């Protein structure tokens, strides 16, 4: 274990990345716990206000992200400065992406259905960073044997091919499949060979003169969304909290 840690984490300089990912995930979890306690009126926590203005945690998150980012650029990734900057950056990124939906909509949609986008972005970001962390780095590792070079070369070729397959899945409008398919190759392959979603680039490019394919794409997307919308909401609500019910809309007058 010690040899693996040295060769694959410390020597290629991945420790800051590991610290950034760990602090990012912990910050998101802690933040969600605190805001859910505030929402329930429990615990000693409360909203931060200044002059009657509610200060969202994306504000300190932006500051920490900037400080950590510039600190990482100015630091040696093998030194203590790089590790500290990575932790600061991870904390800031966790605070910012926890309120990603607010930035996207320019509105306080934290506890609305639109606020679920924050949870999706955090999960996808953690998965991508985890992929970078788990991958074999061919750079920064010294004195590789011929067998190690061949192993790493094979891994790089496999990752490159899987990345291209994931791009095909992405072009078919399957963003989640493409992202997680970068980790689970069979998932990417399944997304690449199946029908594209109706509004995707692939459907616009290749289904324009194929009405049967376009109709099958619409039907499959409808069935897929109807089947998985409920379970996906349950998982998102478990992670981020159940959103407030949408207010009923009054009928328009004649």
UniProtKB/TrEMBL annotation:
The chain crosses the membrane at residues 15-35, 55-74, 80-106, 118-141, 153-170, 177-196. Keywords: Membrane, Transmembrane, Transmembrane helix. The keyword RNA-binding does not apply. This is Integral membrane protein.
């Amino acid at each position: 274990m010690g040899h693996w840690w040295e060769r694959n984490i410390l020597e290629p300089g991945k420790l800051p990345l590991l610290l950034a990912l760990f602090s990012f995930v912990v910050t998101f979890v802690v933040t969600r716990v605190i805001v859910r306690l505030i929402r329930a009126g429990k615990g000693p926590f409360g909203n931060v206000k200044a002059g009657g203005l509610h200060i969202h945690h994306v504000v300190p998150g932006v500051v920490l992200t900037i400080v950590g980012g510039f600190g990482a650029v100015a630091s040696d990734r093998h030194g203590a400065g790089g590790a500290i900057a990575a932790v600061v950056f991870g904390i800031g990124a966790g605070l910012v992406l926890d309120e990603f939906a607010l930035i996207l909509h320019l509105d306080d949609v934290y506890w609305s259905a639109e606020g679920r986008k924050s949870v999706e972005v955090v999960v996808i970001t953690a998965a991508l960073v985890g992929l970078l962390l788990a991958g074999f780095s061919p750079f920064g590792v010294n004195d590789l044997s011929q067998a190690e070079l061949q192993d790493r070369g094979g891994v790089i070729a496999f990752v490159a091919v899987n990345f291209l397959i994931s791009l095909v899945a992405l072009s078919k409008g399957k963003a989640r499949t493409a992202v997680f398919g970068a980790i689970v190759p069979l998932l990417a392959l399944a997304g690449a060979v199946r029908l594209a979603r109706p509004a995707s680039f692939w459907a616009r490019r290749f289904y324009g003169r194929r009405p049967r394919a376009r109709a099958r794409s619409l039907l499959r997307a409808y069935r897929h969304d109807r089947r998985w919308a409920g379970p996906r909401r349950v998982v998102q609500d478990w992670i981020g909290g159940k959103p407030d019910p949408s207010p009923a809309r009054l009928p328009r007058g004649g």
